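Example record

The entry below shows one chain as it appears in the dataset: sequence first, then structure tokens.
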Amino acid sequence: MGERAIEALKALGLTELEAKAYLALVAHGELTAKEVSMLSGVPYSKIHGTLERLREKGWVSASPGRPKHYSALPPAEAARAERLRREAELRALEESVVEELQPLYERSRTVERPDVWIIRGLEGVLSKIHDVLSRARREVLIAIPLAARELLASIGPSIAHLRFSGVEVRVLASEQLKEELSQVEGLAEVRFKSGMFGGGIIADGREAVLILARSGSVMAIWSDYAELAHIAKVYFEHLWEGE
């Protein structure tokens, strides 16, 4: 019982010496410091400081006179007072943490940290395109210039999957790609335009793959920077409407 009580008192914030002294007072009633030391095992050189800390924390009372006599306050009353004291300390710490750190946290969330990747080679570009298309949920805009025609064979199945998933797909392509794009008829709204030099894919207006292709070479720039995706979408709409 003594060890369990000591551990419980320590959990409430008392030191081991304070817990032993308090238990001696609970068990034996009013005692002098010397008697508490003898009954609790707290060294006499430390007993006065231990009892004074218990009094300051609200666990014991001291009667005037020489020598002083100490009495344990009721455990229920003392434990409740300790709980309230610790709750007040925790509230003060919480307020301090919130006051100091919350503004810093909120400022860090308002600063955009977009990624921008440069991807070289057909395989790498296709891999990133499929990655972007797999995350699309509402709308995909695709612009394919003649120089990027080798991407079509791989993108076609993805367009079918998007269509059956309820994603709106619009494709703007070079006029010379009409035959290749026959595979997506009925799966996407397709328009053709002459003189297309660049291309790209914009997913849900939040990330974009800008395709830079020339004969024998394909590279792309991917970014999840919302402003860049917005600009790319505005330009796509401009070409789509043929203005």
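Notes for this example: The helical segments are 2-11, 16-28, 33-40, 44-57, 75-110, 122-135, 152-164, 226-240. Residues 75-110 form the longest helix (36 residues).
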